[in-house]
Specification:
534 residues; mainly alpha; two-stranded antiparallel ribbon; two-stranded antiparallel sheet; 26 helices
């Protein structure tokens, strides 16, 4: 409810500012409006981290995967995490731990199927022989630490979908996990890294665009109902890609084009999908070449040179440390992982595949094992994805010209920010927490304050939907067979979020497509203009 109040208050302040500007109002009111916006931004940012930025609750599930997965990547890679955990626990002196490990069901990370852990106990080469004696003991101690912290969730954690970051992420993540001995204080320190990255991102936007824009960006992203800190925070270096992507658009605004490209290249190497941001600059480069806009061509050329330099340096570093096989393993793992359907997926295909009758609240199997509660929904979703390909292509074909017109209407930094808005229209659906990139899209507020309407609308629509979200315990208290459960399931909340961005972003494209794009005057490489301060 706090976030909804912040979003609505920001909408009122911005609307009033635009109205007064149109009427030629006193500039003092504009300054008052900006001050209120900055206050709302500060509250939104603090609310996002539950007003406890220095004592964020650790997400032990997430930390287990990222800490153990990165520290022992050389031994377990992408496919042996759960098998090696079970194999290590089978040696425990605690009979209860050993017994549980031997009878456990785990996810086979090569096939994504659920299998018996004992399948991996008959070959020493699969796990134990990959470790030195010292590393094996260290591995057992580390998983014991997380077993104690996860307690009842430990068994369930062994049927998740593994450790999936890129080898480039492991360069920094592995350094951190290898240098830090597990303890409560160490976990607190690891968790604070993401808080620092979040605050640093807002500071970067303030540096490049000014405090009012930074405040609006914080509101449009952190107050959005679809990107709770519970998803994004509490882990280990989960926001490194985000910081680098924010650095990219800020450097672009400040006309540091090589740095902008290098930062986005690093972000893309960390999480792959930020590469889509470059679609905007790529279209901008093509247009500049066609229109013979020399300054624009140089700006975009420097940007892509920065991306190329970043990619080469990172790929050489990864190959030197982990071998080229790690890159092939990551590609294989990404293809496998992209086939997984999740209730928190966001994107155009999430909207097109929604069917009320097969929504989680109407199809959950409360009699199934915990790992299979959503099997009916998962099967229906996978089948629906096969049928919506023509509709998906049609929507993208209709939207693409508007996106292109928006990109070529502005400068280089705007092209980069607009590139992010094409993500929900890409084939692969993203998890909800990656939509923190709304903060990057919101920098367009610097060029046209009317973009606040679709961006705040996304947050208001999603936040309103979350008011009706069904507590998962209600599924067991009132099974679907006893009648429909009122409210929205998690899958429906993120379908609503998906619909909001798939409508809001094209509206945003229309709003920023305000300049003549076929005239003689070309926008400056840095961009700018627009409504400016209200």
């Amino acid at each position: 409810m706090t976030n909804l109040i912040i979003l609505i208050a920001a909408l009122i302040v911005i609307s009033a500012g635009l109205y007064l500007k149109k009427r030629g109002g006193d500039t003092r009111w504009a300054r008052v409006g900006d001050f209120i916006l900055m206050a709302l931004g500060a509250v939104a940012l603090l609310s996002y981290v539950n007003f406890k930025p220095l004592s964020t609750q650790p997400n032990n599930w997430d930390l287990f995967h990222y800490y153990v997965g990165s520290k022992y990547f050389s031994e377990i890679g992408y496919t042996r995490l759960y098998a090696c955990v079970a194999r290590a626990e089978a040696e425990s002196d605690d009979e209860a731990v050993s017994h549980a490990a031997k009878r456990r069901t785990i996810r086979d990370l090569e096939t994504n199927e659920l299998v018996a852990s004992r399948n991996y106990f008959f070959s020493e080469n699969y796990c134990k022989e990959r470790f030195s004696a010292a590393r094996w003991e260290s591995f057992k101690n580390d998983i014991g630490f997380f077993r104690d912290r996860l307690q009842d969730l430990w068994e369930l954690a062994q049927i998740d979908h593994g450790f999936n970051p890129s080898p480039v992420w492991i360069l920094a993540g592995g350094l951190a996990s290898g240098a830090v001995t597990l303890s409560d204080n160490a976990i607190t320190g690891l968790v604070l890294l993401d808080v620092i990255l979040l605050l640093g991102s807002v500071a970067l936007i303030a540096w490049a665009f000014g405090l009012p824009v930074a405040a609006f960006a914080a509101i449009a992203s952190t107050a959005s109902g679809g990107i709770d800190w519970a998803w994004a925070g509490g882990g280990m270096l989960r926001l490194d890609w985000f910081f680098m992507a924010v650095l990219s658009v800020c450097a672009m605004k400040r006309e540091h084009y090589v740095l902008a490209g290098a930062a986005l290249g690093y972000a893309a190497a960390l999480r792959v999908f930020p590469a889509i941001f470059a679609l905007g600059p790529f279209i901008g480069l093509l247009y500049a070449m066609i229109k013979r806009q020399r300054e624009q061509k140089i700006a975009y050329g420097k940007f892509f040179a920065g991306m190329a330099i970043s990619a080469v340096v990172l790929l050489v570093s990864v190959s030197a440390l982990y071998g080229t096989d790690s890159l092939r393993a990551f590609a294989d793992n990404t293809r496998k992982h992209s086939a997984v359907v999740s209730t928190n997926n966001v994107g155009l295909r999430t909207v097109l595949t929604y069917r009320p009758d097969t929504a989680v609240r109407n199809s959950i199997d409360v009699q199934a094992r915990e790992a299979h509660l959503y099997w009916k929904w998962e099967e229906a979703k996978a089948e629906a994805k096969k049928k919506v390909v023509p509709a998906y292509i049609a929507v993208v074909v209709v939207c693409l010209p508007l996106f292109v017109l928006a990109v070529i209407s502005g400068g280089a930094w705007q092209a980069l920010a607009l590139g992010a808005t094409f993500i929900p229209f890409a084939w692969s659906e993203m998890s909800n927490y990656y939509y923190l990139f709304l903060m990057i899209v919101a920098t367009l507020f610097a060029a046209n304050r009317k973009v606040a309407f679709p961006l705040l609308g996304v947050g208001i629509a999603t936040g309103a939907g979350k008011l009706f979200e069904i507590d998962v315990n209600r599924y067991f208290e009132q099974p679907a067979s006893q009648g429909a459960i009122s409210g929205l399931g998690m899958d429906e909340v993120y379908t609503l979020f998906s619909a909001a961005v798939c409508i809001g972003f094209p509206v945003l494209w229309w709003l920023v497509k305000s300049r003549p794009v076929f005239g003689k005057r070309a926008p400056s490489p840095a961009g700018g203009g627009g409504d400016g301060p209200a």
